[in-house]
Structure formats: structure tokens, C-alpha cells
Amino acid sequence: MKPKYLLLSKEELIKKYEQLERELASVKKEKESLEKELRKYKNSNTPPSAHPHLKPVFSSVNKTRKKHGAPVGHAGITRPKKEPDEMRRISATECPVCHGKDFKVIGTRRQQIEEMPPDIQPVIIDVTRDFCRCNRCKTRFVATDGRTPIQGKFGINLIVLVIFLKFIVRGVLRKTASFLESGFSMRLAPASVQAIIERAAKAGDAEYQDLKQKIRTAPLLYIDETSFRVLGFNWWVWAFRSDTDLLFAIRNSRGSNVLEEMLGEEYSGIVVCDCWRAYDFLSLNATLQRCWAHLLRKSAELESVPGRHLHKKLAALFRKIKLFNSKERTEKQRERKYRQMTAELKKITSHYSRHEECESVAKYAGFRIESWFTCVRFAGVEPTNNYAEQAIRETVLVRKIIGAFRSETGTKVYETLASLIATWQFQKKDLRAELCRMLTTNMC
Global pTM? Predict the structure, then answer.
């Protein structure tokens, strides 16, 4: 039986060819579009945990299955007994099956529940405040009591509740206003909610500046950045995490000028970061530790035989780092191991740079090669930038919810309150107590 194309005329073959050309061009265009979209998610800057269905099949680490259940030392969920505010005695009146009245009580069961008042209403307070003039220095001032805001018509507890809804529950303005109305009979416009948050951020500005100074003097920092749309343009949220503090800064730049602004030219601590070129600005005085997670994600994408071998060798080096840092080491031992592992990485990158498919990863690892083993040279330094990536994860969730900031004022408000709340959480402090302290100190 003859193939179908042999039965077609010349004109029909030309038409068929032209149709196939159009279909091929369309498929190529769609393929390029899908590959471009895929690169947004599957790249060395996006951790596999963010998209588990995009994890690479190849892995050099054999993970052992862990037993399911609570970790060792978990406190459990049983709440301790408290002193009751109300006693209830619940007695039966009839059988729930046959509705008979003839029954006998054969025992009792006790339980303790925690309940909220059925109707939480706002408290209206009329304030009369003395306006005074000092007879000695002629200074004019108003009387304060340390709990009533000098300006505005909203109290401290209401402001704290709004901040919790916005930053802890991640509520948008419209839903925050709706929740306050339905749950607390407090009718507020979304603009009023925003005004409350802006006033709180203004009250926290002094503590934010103090936090910035602490970050500038921290001996060890983990730094990362992520994009965020502001007024239709691409801005960047920078996260600076030390052992005790966490600072966010939102700027319209991803360059070294932000690092200069936040840390200064003379910063001389240790910085854990990825290989973004802006961080080279810090290398004049600071000591950098490049992120091994980024490097291993890049090498894991190599599919050729030399590429898989390169990934295995890099993964083995990473395991050596973890093993070496698992024990106490002297400074002399650390210096010797640092030189040894740097030489080993240099040998690996030199060998595999000869393979075209490995060249980009070898070049990535070979750039600033002295910065890959700072974690071996100095105790207490992590080989990955996971601490900074964990710190910035909350901002990524906020970005997914709100999409963008509608004003530059919103960026200032967010960086101030998000930095203070994240730092207090990091230090395991009572958020409500810290917010009340900050607000009463600066507003009352």
C-alpha cells in the first residue's frame, strides 16, 4: 500500500508542507514560552521545597525514612487546668434514644473548656486631658497617663488587634475591616485600618532605627533579597538576619548601594549570601560565605555523565563540611582544613571546566573560590543561606496575598512593623506585651 503523501498532487503537497511549517512554528513558540515560565520556578535560586513537583529526579543523598509522630521532647497539646470563672452542672432530662424519663445517674465526667464572651463590644472612653503651661520654664504641654494615645481616636488594644490581623494572620485591609465589624461590632473603613497601621509604624520608627544599628554591628549576618512590585515597578525586599535580630528593607534597587546604605562601607563581619555580584561590594572588608545550597541546586540540574560526576563530588565536599563542623575544632585545625578544601574545590572546578556542559557550574564555583569554606575557617557559620531564606519566606507569602504595594508609604510601614515583629518572634518574646510597650511609650 502506497503512503498517503504519494497520492497527493504537487499543489496539495505544498499546502500540506506550509501547514506543517505553521504548526511547527506554533509548537516552537509555545515550547519557548513554557520553558521561560518553568525557569521562574526551577532554578538555583528557588529551593526545591517551594515546588516539590519540580524536584530533580537525581539525588546523591540517600534520605533515611524517619518515624512518624511528634519529635522527642514534644510538650504535647494537653492544656493545663486553670482556675474556673464559671461552674456549670449539666444534668440529663430524658433518654436521647427513647425519650424516657426513667433513668439513673451512674457517674459523672468532668471537663474544662475555654470560651470567649458571646458579644465582644468596643468600650467607648471620653477623655478630658489637661492642657498646661509651666510657670517656671513657660513650656506648654498636655497631661499623659501612659495608656491613652495623645492623638487619634483608637486605643492601644485596638491598634494591637489590627496589627495582629494584618501581620500575624496576613489579613488584607478589606477583610480586616470586615472581621472587626462582624466579630467586634467595630465599623472601620479599610482606609481607617491603613491609618491605624501607619500610625503604629511611625511609633515604631525609633526602634527600627535601633535595630538597624544592631545589624550594622553584628559580627555575622545572613542576607537575602526577593522581588516585590511597588506601583507597577520591580522593587526588592532585603532581609538581614543576625543571631538575635532580623531587619527588612524595601528598596527600588538590588545593587550594592543598598548594602552600603544598610551596613556602610566599613562593615567587617562575616556575611553568608548567594553569588549575586552586589555582595562583592562587602568583600573589601567583610568575609563572605557563599551559599552551598545554590551551588548544589545548579549542579543537580546537570544531566550528562560528567555533570552527574561533578554534582557527586560537590555533594561529597558539602558532606565533609558538615562532618568537620559537627565536632569542636581548634583555629589551627580550621585554617588547615580551609586551605585543604579550597585546594580540592579548585582542582575539581579546573578539571570539569573542560566539559562544555559543566563549564557554567565550574565557573560559578570558581568565582571567589576562597569564599566557599568560610564556614570551615570560622566556627558558628552555616554553609548555606537557609537562615536568610527562611526569614524572607513570610514576605514571599505576603507578596502572593497582596500582589503589590500601592504606595511607597506602604513599603516603609511594612519594613518597620515586619522587622520588629519578626525580631520579637525570633527572640521568643511576648508579641502583645512588646507591641503595647512600644505603642504606649511613643503614643501615650
Answer: 0.79
